[in-house]
Input
Amino acid sequence: MHLGVVDYGASNIHSVARALQSLGSKVSIVDTPDKFKSIDKLVFPGQGSMGSCIKKLNETEMINPLLDAIKSKPFLGICLGLQILFDSSEESKEKGLGVINGSITKIKDINKENLKIPHMGWNNVKIEKKHELFSGIEDKQFFYFVHSFVASNTETSITTTHYGEEFVSSLATENIFATQFHPEKSGEIGLKFLENFINWKI
Amino acid sequence: MSLAVRIIPCLDVRGGRVVKGINFKDIVDAGDPAEAAKRYDAEGADEICMLDIDASFEERSTTIETVKSIASQVFIPFTVGGGIKSLKDIDMLLKSGADKVSINTSAILNPDLIEEASKEYGAQCIVLAIDAKQDGEIWNVYTHGGKNKTELDAIEWAKKGQDLGAGEILMTSMDKDGTKSGFDNNLYMELSNNLSIPVIASGGAGELSHLVDAVKLGKADALLAASIFHYEEISIKKVKQALQTEGFEVRL
Output
């Protein structure tokens, strides 16, 4: 099993790569278009804005091989890696990858509960639909989040989390799984989740 | 449902070893940083903080090795501070596995550093660390590990830090640090009332009730402590259970 972690030049990809390596996986950094081919499964960690991410993917000419991989290989998007799957985001003028219908919005209702933005820290993840990637993980466990924008409405939702509003903390469709939380920073439970991804058979 | 109160054990490191002093003085050796970090992770720490207490240029490579060693074994958020002077320092620490950097003296000497770092890496990875000592009605800011007094008011400086783009404030009360007599809750309450970014309280933890009070009275978002966790005087789990009993959200 050969895992690829996409590096488009703006994201801290090292912690994801380290976590996957600690689970015994062979991990390669995918930072050029030709490196997608030899990879069995792809992880896309992201931070920053959707606009700058899409721009960088265009500059590095990785956008088409990335789209091909998303269609054909087990794929895990993390944080911005979830958001760019959507059509658009309030954060940026640039369109997303459009793999999932809908748009990303700024977290709402923070004033009502006197909450701080970004949503940063450990929060509960409520399992709404069974999925292999959550096997062995109990309902309402804590995962680590750092973000200001959310997906709040999609039929693909697997888990939800409450912060100001109920938002989609993970989603899945066919070979695609994506999380708003950072499994690579969520301790033992996060590692269990990543192990499930490594073992995921489609 | 809200965010869990974070418990952050701090490793004060010098020359690749954990050390501990009282009131920033009388330093003693207290073990291997990566081993300690692993133990804290297993005990339920929500983050790990490592402060290189007198990071000099010569010791940079030791610091980087320690950061790499911790980051390859511990998979929770990891903050590194001490001697950070430039974007290049920050870049190197983040690449070595730190998730956040904590900046203290350099932010006072060069406030642009906070602004530039926040723009470059995002507010979520920039922690402004402040050492403060009470003087009558106010708290004065000190630099260089508590050695030099400045004219800055700690609350005002924290607000400025927030405006410059810091994502969190790590405030250490020098009056309380190492004394085990409880946190300076007035300081933290004043801070929390004036800031919209999270406040990490540090200095003075000695008993379970001190930690609970820093959240209850001081309204701290996170608690940082070194010696009580290092010497296993109070377990992280006990702190979380006590907070939960008081109705606070914790990750247990």
